[in-house]
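Re: [ENG-882] Designed sequences occasionally contain unexpected residues at chain ends

Forwarding the minimal case from QA. Structure tokens:
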């Protein structure tokens, strides 16, 4: 199959790049190794839309972050995605931390972050009564927001697809060669060709770079764990909390994020695993629980889930050996014409996904001499969500798929599951449905609704139930019938 542009990787960055490329008269495709979009870094992160206080003034990262934050309400409204701006409180417990906060406040002001204010202990406790009363000061960052990362990525993918971008799943790129100026991409069963190639392979971006002939960076993964608390807890956290530990304490500190769905997310820890391993670590979770008790002593720690995330840290060889690379940009190595790469994009990659996608699309369109189309529409209608209806609105609905509750914890109906399956790109696994609808994300973690969803998925996809997977390859739920005909 032949395209003008191929993007390798359907995470947030790949999906936004595809959406931005669909503004141009270009045939664009995304090749994704897995069965769905947003199954990698994009599904496991802190979900924060940063104001930019942790970036270095004058850098591209800082400009993109401040700009993206200011425009996030508009982006989410366009894509039909929920976004909240509870604001952020960066807490400290002593003089050293206070000094750090003062520097961030000054830097943030220079970068154009609005509304930054240093709070006294009393003010901080008034805003966030659950904070440890020993809090010394807190920096108020009102523009800090939160979004469901995969919801945003899926919305970008759907919008890109509606504008002509094509998605090919279960297509891991194994080798790249050149035929004149074209790239030839070898997957297990199919071959693809394109005039320009964009690498958005996340944790594997260094391997894809090497296939294309660019070996500047190496990625050393670093994992970290999170805890998710139940929605129903008595003790509510009102704002996004940041806490960087002071002195020689071992842990790096933590973030507490009240998500748009009403859960509280705590984490991440940090360990240098050097393998892309999504298993959580008992010691890390213990450390995280201890930190949470220190920061929020009165918090009801009703954990419903833990999960792990992996950071794609990039390194390059400098004068003094291997050093951390600052590569938050769209890299176009001069020696490989037509090749563009987003390598080692860490935080705030979620915040800046649209900006990076737009940057990549602009560079690629200029390289190919492509013009903008007149037909692009950036709007996507938000899917039907029963749980967001008022009791009066619910009462008015006649009995139908729209009222047939499948996941009771999260109030997800059959209609929402059908929509998730028949979207483009649509869900093919239980986790694909979970990411699109929240079914199975609640207190019982899918114990009650999983069988019914599995049945719907098998029927709608026309496959035997034994072939339905929970998540990635090999994660079958059923191994076969116990009794014939049952
Ligand atoms: C712990 C953590 C916390 C974070 N918190 C925040 C935050 O709060 N706010 C923020 O702004 N940013 C945050 N980020 C950053 C943000 O999550 C990422 O920058 C963002 O998700 C971008 O992901 P991606 O598209 O690069 O990678 P991924 O989502 O991993 O996508 C890459 C895709 O490429 C595919 N792929 C790989 N190799 C191949 C191949 N050979 N062929 C085909 N497909 C391939 C993979 O299957 C995968 O789906 C955080 C990151 C981490 C790790």
């Amino acid at each position: 199959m032949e395209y003008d542009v191929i993007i390798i990787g359907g995470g947030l960055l790949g999906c936004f790049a595809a959406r931005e490329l669909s503004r141009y008269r270009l045939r664009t495709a995304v090749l994704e190794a897995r069965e769905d979009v947003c199954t990698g870094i994009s599904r496991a992160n802190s979900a924060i839309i940063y104001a930019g206080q942790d970036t270095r003034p004058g850098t591209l990262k800082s400009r993109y972050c401040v700009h993206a934050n200011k425009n996030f309400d508009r982006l989410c409204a366009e894509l039909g995605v929920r976004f909240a701006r509870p604001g952020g409180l960066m807490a400290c417990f002593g003089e050293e931390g206070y000094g750090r906060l003062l520097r961030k406040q000054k830097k943030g002001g220079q970068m154009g972050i609005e509304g930054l204010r240093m709070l006294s202990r009393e003010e901080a406790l008034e805003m966030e009564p659950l904070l440890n009363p020993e809090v010394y000061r807190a920096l108020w960052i009102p523009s800090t927001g939160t979004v469901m990362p995969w919801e945003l990525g899926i919305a970008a993918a759907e919008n890109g697809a509606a504008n002509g971008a094509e998605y090919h799943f279960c297509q891991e790129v194994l080798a790249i060669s050149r035929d004149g100026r074209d790239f030839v991409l070898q997957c297990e069963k199919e071959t693809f060709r394109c005039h320009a190639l964009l690498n958005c392979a996340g944790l594997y971006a260094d391997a894809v770079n090497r296939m294309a002939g660019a070996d500047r960076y190496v990625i050393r993964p670093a994992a970290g764990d999170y805890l998710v608390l139940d929605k129903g807890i008595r003790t509510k956290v009102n704002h996004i909390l940041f806490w960087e530990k002071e002195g020689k304490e071992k842990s790096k500190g933590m973030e507490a994020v009240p998500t748009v769905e009403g859960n509280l997310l705590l984490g991440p820890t940090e360990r240098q695993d050097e393998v892309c391993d999504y298993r959580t670590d008992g010691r890390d979770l213990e450390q995280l629980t201890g930190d949470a008790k220190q920061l929020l002593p009165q918090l009801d720690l009703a954990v419903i889930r833990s999960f792990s995330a992996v950071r794609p840290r990039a390194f390059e060889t400098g004068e003094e050996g291997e050093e951390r690379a600052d590569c938050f940009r769209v890299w176009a190595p001069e020696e490989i014409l037509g090749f563009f790469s987003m390598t080692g994009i860490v935080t705030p990659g979620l915040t800046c996904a649209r900006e990076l996608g737009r940057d990549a699309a602009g560079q690629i369109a200029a390289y190919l001499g492509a013009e903008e189309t007149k037909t692009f529409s950036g709007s996507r209608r938000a899917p039907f969500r029963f749980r967001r209806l008022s009791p009066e609105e619910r009462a008015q609905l006649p009995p139908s798929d729209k009222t047939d509750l499948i996941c009771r914890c999260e109030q997800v109906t059959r209609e929402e599951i059908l929509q998730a399956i028949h979207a483009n790109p649509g869900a093919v696994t239980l986790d694909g449905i979970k990411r699109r609808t929240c079914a199975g994300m609640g207190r019982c973690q899918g114990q009650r609704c999983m069988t019914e969803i599995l049945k719907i998925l098998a029927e709608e996809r026309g496959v035997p139930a034994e072939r339905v997977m929970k998540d990635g390859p090999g994660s079958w739920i059923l191994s076969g019938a116990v009794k014939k005909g049952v």
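QA comment: On inspection the terminal residues look reasonable. The first helix runs from residue 12 to 21. Proposing we downgrade this to a documentation issue.
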